[in-house]
């Protein structure tokens, strides 16, 4: 038992000895791996992740549904996965050179992650190569001229269709932007005109109130002056026939002088009020003149904006006509493509027909058939709606004719139940049509 529990000191390794062994071994890291595979590789991977994510988000839009953009989107996705799963290995190499190789965080889970990430990154690189090959084959089939007239005309028709669709879309976007800008300018002009009108109306109201108050003060001062003049005239005309001998005549003269002085003061006040009134009237006239100029300027701007809007509308009409013509030309080109395919199928059974164009023709025929079916269903729905309107009118007539009794309520309940059923059927039909 003592031999089982005994410990042997020969198997215990001292830490100093272990550190000396590690130093003696050549475990120093390679600076090439640190700078090239670590720092540069990490920067390139981060830039590749950001740029591929942005380009993928642009290429998956509804506008870019051509085969070229599909291949490019797949290439961006494969490069994105490659850069993302190369990061764990480059992070280890990016650690500083002072840290030895045995101190790097190579845990069991991290080594598993490195193995899986390496496999996925190699898969992404191989996939990007094959996508480049498929892209070149597609371009070669579409644009390289062949010996036969059919293939050359088909390639030119494809180029015309792609160019016409892209140019029409660009023209439509430019027109929409111009219309939006003109509408926003028109709205801002209308808001500024409303603001100027409200401000001018408020200033005119204030000036009118001030004018009325000045006219009232002038009228009151004129009344006072007229009263004083009347009093003076009366005092001058009346002879002094008073029996009071104690009050001398000088007192009456002093009163007359005071009244005259008051009269002069009132006249001066009237003149001052008139001057103020004339100044305010001139200010009013100036403000009215300025407001008229502003209104004229805004009206001219509005006229210019209306002219621009009319030009834009005319451009829109012309572009819409051009779009209609281009759609007609596209339909004619598609018809020609179909005729060429029929000619080649009857003349040369050995010639291989482009499968993409055949699929497009089939899709066009399917879409036309679906459109005809939708038109028929819409006509049926219109007939049902007309029947429903007639049914509602009959219900109204019944409500007018039926007396207020229990039968009246039961009939209404039945009619309403039928109406609800019809509405549910119409809603289901609409959902089916939308789907």
From TrEMBL:
Signal peptide: none annotated. Residues 193-336, 364-432 form a coiled coil. The chain crosses the membrane at residues 35-60, 69-93, 113-137. Pfam families: 7TM_GPCR_Srw. The keyword Cell cycle does not apply. SUPFAM superfamilies: Family A G protein-coupled receptor-like. It comes from Adineta steineri. GO terms for molecular function: G protein-coupled peptide receptor activity. Keywords: Coiled coil, Membrane, Transmembrane, Transmembrane helix. This is G-protein coupled receptors family 1 profile domain-containing protein.
